[in-house]
Amino acid sequence: MRSSSPLRSRVAAVIRASAVTVTLTGCHGVMSALDPASHESGMIASITWWLVGASAVIYAVVCAAMVAAISRHRDRSASSVDLSAPSERMIVWYGAIIPGVVLVALFVLTLTAMHRYPATISRRAVTYHVTAHQWWWDVSWIDASSGRAMHSANEIHVPVGAPVRIILTTDDVIHTFWVPQLQGKIDLIPGDTTEIRFTALHSGAYRGQCAEFCGVQHAHMAFVVVAEPADSFANWIASEEAPAAMPSDSARLVAQQLVVNGPCATCHTIRGTSASGAIGPDLTHIGSRRMLAAGELPNNIGTMEAWIANAQSLKPGVAMPSMRVFSGGQLRAVAAYLEGLR
Question: 294 vs 19, 123, 154, 301, CA distance in Å?
Fold first, then answer.
């Protein structure tokens, strides 16, 4: 019976190591830092895998040493252990040397990755200014060379293969900007600015998330980074720069007047109209966004109606009040008008 115990321990260790490996190899998807889509996230993923590998080696060595020690001394009392014996000295020596070597190697690996991180800002960098609010993201794009600018919310478009610089600040509490597939986390500090840079390698829509607890709706403070070819990005910028199109029919024109002359205009801007509120997101092209309410709802007429009428039920505590001032017909018309702002 005693001879089978070390064998069971070895088998258990192998099973645990296998389970960890299988779990990590399944770490992919829109919120996985191990499924990189940029130069920078690739470096982070590489360091992570080296850490996992080194940890696995250390774990295996420690388990093997523990099993060997138990096997050799299972019949001895604790007081009989002789640290001057060769085997015990070997364990003590490797217990200090191996971790030290591994830590130094990982330190060098990290420094090498940091050295590859661009120290200067490329003149081609697409620059955004992002301000966090409880619980949404205000997005501005500025082209320093031409002075062109646009304003949006909760959605950032970037060209594939071009460096991107995002300057970050917050309007209230500490938030954290995190797009796992594109870059690591960085905090947004009240009264200060931070910045993050990355270069997307593949087209796609990458989900971002506030990663610092910032209030009751922290989990519902998401955004999307859309990486696309340069010509698509240029078209998107041109579309976002333009003011809202005038309604093409009388029904939408009536709905527009309900928005710009009603409570919506107190908090929201719709460029090209008299609505110029600065509390909530810019709605000029809200119909072109993938999601509503910072990733809370898919963007369509039905969810637009629900959000306008029941914002406090869908996202309690958000600054957007539940708008009960519209009749059923007015609510549908307003939702259709806003959904048509593309």
Answer: 36, 31, 6, 16
Tokens of 214: 């910032």
> How many Å apart are CA 283 and CA 275, to the nearest integer?
10
Which amino acid belongs to residue 62?
V
Q: Residue-wise over 320-337: b if at least 16 C-beta within 10 A, else e?
A: beebeebeeeebbbbbbb
Which has the minimum average pLDDT: 9-13, 277-281, 295-299? 9-13
Length of the chain in terms of residues written: 342
CB of 241 closer than 8 Å to CB of 288? no
Report the helix count and the strand count for the chain, using DSSP H and E. 8, 12
SS3 label, residue 127: strand
b/e sequence 205-240, b meaning 16+ C-beta within 10 Å: ebbbbbbbebeebbebbbbbbbbbeeeebeebbeeb
Query: What tens digit of pLDDT does each residue of 252-284 get?
Result: 999 999 999 999 999 999 999 999 999 999 999
> pTM (2 decimals)?
0.81
Residue 264, Cβ neighbours under 10 Å: how many?
Answer: 22
Distance CA 265, CA 261 (A): 7
Q: Within 10 A of 56 (CB to CB), how many other CB atoms are there?
A: 14
